[in-house]
Specification:
It contains no helices and 33 strands. By secondary structure, it is mainly beta. The protein folds into 4 domains: 96 residues, Immunoglobulin-like; 83 residues, Immunoglobulin-like (Sandwich); 83 residues, Sandwich (Immunoglobulin-like), CATH 2.60.40.10; 64 residues, no CATH class. Strand 12 and strand 13 form a beta hairpin. The relative contact order is 0.08.
């Protein structure tokens, strides 16, 4: 502000002289204080300072440290009072760059020099676009956009609910194939980028995926009788339970048996000489199940009241027997020829009668089980 002043002499008699004009003077426009930077990200920063008396507006200039050209912006004063916090939010900054900035007060008719410099450094950018694809039972393909031409990426993953992260450092690509996972399990993962060997971004928000539950394998129908059959399958998951569905081939409606703990089920109460189909799925958790494996078909045995051998041969050959099928646990069998039971085979019958000469020869580890 510009001031005008005058002076006069007051004599001993008390009579003053005329006022004589003095030289005008202008007070300096005070510089802002308490320069500070907050909320600094990889492309933005908030600059703050305190107002001064008589400040109409404030001019801020900034530049990457060590460069020549300044960028500037002007902010109106929020108050005519001193010590009121004023701020400017800068955007479009360069990641991982140190910036120099200054501010000066614009007073009415007077513009002083800038304040001393303050500094801040933008952050290393956080990777974006995290995506989980090709999620299988034991693996998942992870990808992301790095957001920088950084040196490498650190990846962390964990089972849902765990407090411990497994870290895979120094990934130079933007994808990673995560293997050796648990079947039917929920996982979380996150990544961070590295702008220099010593400066990394913060981790991106975690992304989740769930591995699939594998279908049961090796479905087989065994011990097929006129009214029953043994259904078998193999388990390729850990701790899974199973859901079995079966029906006659002539009907569309399934009968469902849930919560099976083993890998076999005895199906009873069937109709002789009838075709059936069945399928089975695995449940790795209460909410994660495989698709159904199958369906597999079988035919129950026909009722045969006169089962006897037609020629020498193997017990498991339907052409050896008068009923055109292999005997089961409901059949009374008459052996009229030399019949061999293959190694490791379990032959069944309700009863077996022999003519004088014929016999049954058991192979290694073979069995002939009588009775139901």
């Amino acid at each position: 502000m510009t001031y005008q002043w005058r002076v006069r002499t007051v004599c001993a008699s008390g009579n003053p002289s005329d006022l004589v004009p003095g030289t005008n003077f202008t007070t300096l426009c005070a510089a802002p204080g308490s320069l500070n930077s907050n909320n600094v990200t990889h492309t933005s920063a908030q600059l703050t300072w305190l107002t001064v008396n008589a400040g109409v507006s404030y001019e801020i200039r900034y530049r990457p440290q060590g460069t020549v050209a300044w960028s500037s912006q002007t902010v109106a004063s929020p108050s005519s009072n001193p010590d009121v916090t004023t701020n400017l939010f800068l955007t479009g900054l360069v990641p991982q760059t140190t910036y120099e900035w200054q501010v000066r007060t614009i007073c009415s008719g007077f513009t002083p020099t800038y304040s001393t410099s303050a500094f801040f450094t933008t952050a290393c950018p956080v990777p974006t676009g995290l995506s989980s694809t090709s999620v299988l039972a034991y693996s998942a393909q992870l990808s992301w956009s790095p957001g920088t031409t950084g040196i490498a990426t650190d990846l962390q993953f964990q089972l849902q609910g765990s407090t411990t992260w497994t870290t895979i450092p120094g990934i130079t690509a933007n994808t990673f194939s995560l293997t050796g996972l648990n079947v039917g399990a929920a996982y979380r993962w996150q990544v961070r980028g590295a702008c220099t060997p010593t400066v990394s971004s913060s981790y991106a928000n975690p992304v989740s995926f769930t591995t699939s539950c594998l279908q049961p394998g090796n479905l087989a129908s065994t011990s097929i009788a006129t009214n029953a059959a043994q259904l078998n399958w193999s388990n390729v998951n850990t701790g899974a339970t199973f859901t079995l569905q079966w029906r006659p081939q002539s009907t569309p409606n399934w009968t469902t048996v849930s919560g099976l703990l083993g890998t076999a089920f005895s199906l009873t109460g069937l109709t002789a000489g009838t075709g059936y189909v069945w399928q089975v799925s695995a449940a790795c958790t209460p909410t994660i199940s495989s698709s159904y494996a199958g369906p597999v078909s079988f035919n129950t045995a026909t009722v045969c009241t006169n089962m006897y051998s037609l020629r020498n041969g193997s017990w498991d050959d339907p052409m050896v027997w008068s009923c055109g099928r292999v005997p089961n646990s409901t059949d009374i069998v008459r052996v009229r020829h030399l019949i061999s039971v293959p190694p490791n085979y379990n032959a069944t019958a309700l009863q077996v009668f022999f003519d004088t000469v014929p016999k049954v020869a058991l192979g290694q580890n073979a069995q002939l089980n009588l009775g139901q």
